[in-house]
Write a structure and sequence with these properties.
With 225 residues, this protein is of the alpha/beta class. The chain is 49% helix and 12% strand.
Length: 225
């Protein structure tokens, strides 16, 4: 079955370009277009896409509010949201991930990067590169420095190894880097991360990073070479 995609952007030209790229890619198909957040939510219910490409700035209900509505609707649990943004990390990205998005992609991305991003999100992985993670975390710490950390009782359900892995994920490390540091295989690291996501109720790796900082499991990122 092809990966089903809904395009949500208020610019007709942008949607036309996205449709052209996606419909030409093997195994992908556009099943609907929305110019507002309200239309995006409606189409998510009607078309049941695998992925919604969601612009943030739209009239009426914006992309963040639409993402929150979709993430809160259990009937749309299988629908993933990939945020399209002008900048890889801006003031909206953290809120987008906290709202339930599975990742974000710059609008200037190459067509092949866009296609791979859709496939990544469709299979349940988060589109959040280590470099983007660190930028996201830095901005979060700047904006939320005065807010108290809210420890979660769910943290007690994590094993020591899962805590280690989550902290390193939040530090912007890839599975391969974590595997090298902890002397594990990348597959084992991914397994620990997946177990932690299940226990903490995180939809994907992106939300795992958000939860790690909200609950105090992770602290300010360390400088890296």
């Amino acid at each position: 079955m092809p990966i089903r995609v809904v395009l949500a952007d208020d610019q007709d030209l942008v949607r036309a370009g996205l449709r052209l790229v996606i419909d030409r890619a093997p195994g992908l198909t556009v099943v609907g277009e929305a110019a507002t957040g309200h239309d995006a939510v409606r189409l998510a219910h009607e078309a049941r896409p695998d992925v919604v490409l969601m612009d943030i700035r739209m009239p009426g209900l914006d992309g963040l509010a639409a993402t929150r509505r979709m993430a809160a609707d259990d009937s749309l649990a299988g629908v993933r949201v990939l945020i399209l943004t002008t900048f890889e990390v801006d003031e909206y990205v953290f809120e987008a991930l906290r709202s339930g998005a599975s990742g974000f992609l710059g609008k200037g991305a190459r067509p092949e990067v866009l296609i791979e991003a859709i496939r990544t999100v469709a299979r349940g992985d988060a589109l959040l590169s280590p470099s983007a993670t660190r930028g996201l975390v830095t901005r979060f710490l700047t904006l939320h420095d005065s807010e108290p950390v809210r420890p979660s009782p769910l943290l007690a359900t994590l094993t020591d190894r899962e805590r280690q892995v989550v902290a390193l994920v939040a530090d912007g490390m890839s599975n391969t880097e974590i595997a090298c540091q902890l002397t594990l295989s990348p597959l084992t690291v991914k397994t620990h991360a997946n177990h932690a996501m299940t226990k903490l109720g995180a939809r994907d790796r992106a939300q795992l990073v958000v939860l790690a900082y909200q609950t105090g499991l992770a602290s300010a990122p360390r400088p890296r070479p």
